[in-house]
Specification:
The chain is an alpha/beta fold. It has helices at residues 8-17, 28-42, 60-71, 85-99, 113-125, 143-152, 168-177, 200-212, 257-260, 275-278, 283-289, 294-306, 312-327, 332-335, 338-344, and strands at 108-111, 134-139, 155-160, 182-188, 216-220, 251-256, 269-273.
Length: 345
């Protein structure tokens, strides 16, 4: 460690104390612990962006809706496994309002935060086609997603996109895809944690190759609409949040309430998958489960086994926040500009 404002011996001491053998493979929680200890020992202030917790209050429209749902006794009722109808409708509308994609309410599935969304997506995508048993990460990425792959016993490969921007992205992706073992590709946009955005030409490359090689794309939108170079907070009018969904039908969108609505504590988000993917049948899924489309297996087999539904009252909160944003009565993007300030720092 050279040319850093902190004595490297302090950093090494903390890493050794936490028994982390390879810092490059540390989880985000381990990075948080390291940063906290180094900050204490060195007295050097860290700009804390690793957890995406800027100290913002949760959106009031969501809090009020959740309180009302609890007061109405919703806590005693099991949630429907495929999601609250009002939430599914408002999720579909939100996607249209801010991404300009047409996804049916049926294909918008509540999950216990995007963490559960990615886990379930990995799980099902890796079962679709025999021989396609590997997830490809376009890095930098959210480290714990690789931890999920390790937990479920899948394989993964990765490359750092830094040296493969623009047209160069096509060649490196094809090098992986032509092997025939890639079940899914995941990336975040805006990027978590490097804070850059993929360009339209790059999203088109990803989409075109996903169709050509029949690979599923997981688009992680944790920092939804936070490309502050343009105003993405106006509903049903351009500019829209960029998405690979413009270029392929083989996609799932992971939209979390944690950052965009500062609703992290309630662990709520949605997976919105294309109608074509939702209704598609795969040989691998038929062999394993007897029948079912990608969407039905995702909900009634995988999600049911993981949590038997998503917190009931939180679904009312997310439905209300989606509705207010789409209606234009809640300019969510104005409330999260602290992320832009942190990035500038």
């Amino acid at each position: 460690m050279k040319n850093i404002p902190i004595d490297s011996s302090i950093v090494n001491e903390v890493i050794d104390k936490l028994n982390i053998k390879d810092f490059g493979r540390a989880t985000i929680r381990e990075v948080v612990a390291i940063a906290g200890e180094v900050e204490k020992k060195s007295g050097v202030e860290f700009i804390r962006m690793e957890m995406g917790v800027p100290g913002l209050p949760p959106a009031k429209v969501g809090v009020n809706a959740e309180i009302q749902a609890l007061q109405n006794g919703i806590a005693s009722i099991y949630p429907v496994i495929d999601g609250l109808p009002e939430l599914k409708y408002e999720a579909s509308r939100f996607v249209k309002a801010f991404i300009d994609l047409n996804i049916s309410p049926e294909c918008c599935v509540p999950v216990t935060g995007s963490m559960q969304g990615t886990y379930t997506s990995f799980l099902v995508a890796g079962q679709c086609n025999p021989g396609k048993d590997t997830i490809l990460f376009i890095d930098p990425g959210f480290p714990v997603q690789k931890q999920q792959i390790l937990v479920m016993g899948y394989k993964y490969e990765s490359f750092d996109v830094y040296n493969y921007r623009g047209e160069k992205l096509k060649a490196i992706l094809e090098d992986y895809l032509k092997k025939g073992n890639i079940a899914a590709i995941i990336y975040s946009n805006p990027n978590n944690p490097a804070w850059f955005c993929l360009k339209e030409e790059e999203l088109k490359i990803i989409g075109d190759l996903a169709t050509r090689y029949d690979t599923i794309i997981l688009e992680d939108l944790a920092y939804f609409a936070m490309d502050f170079r343009k105003d993405l907070g106006m509903s049903f009018q351009p500019p829209f949040q960029s998405s690979v969904g413009k270029y392929t039908d083989n996609y799932l969108l992971l939209i979390s309430g944690s950052k965009v609505f500062s609703y992290a504590g309630q662990r709520i988000g949605i997976v919105a998958m294309s109608d074509k993917l939702y209704h598609r049948k795969y040989d691998g899924l038929t062999t394993r489960y007897g029948s079912g489309t990608f969407g039905s297996v995702f909900i009634h087999r995988a999600l049911y086994a993981l949590s038997s539904g998503t917190g009931h009252s939180a679904q009312y909160a997310l439905a209300a926040m989606f509705k207010a944003a789409s209606d234009g009565t809640f300019r969510f993007i104005d409330y999260v500009k602290v992320y832009q300030k942190n990035d500038t720092r």
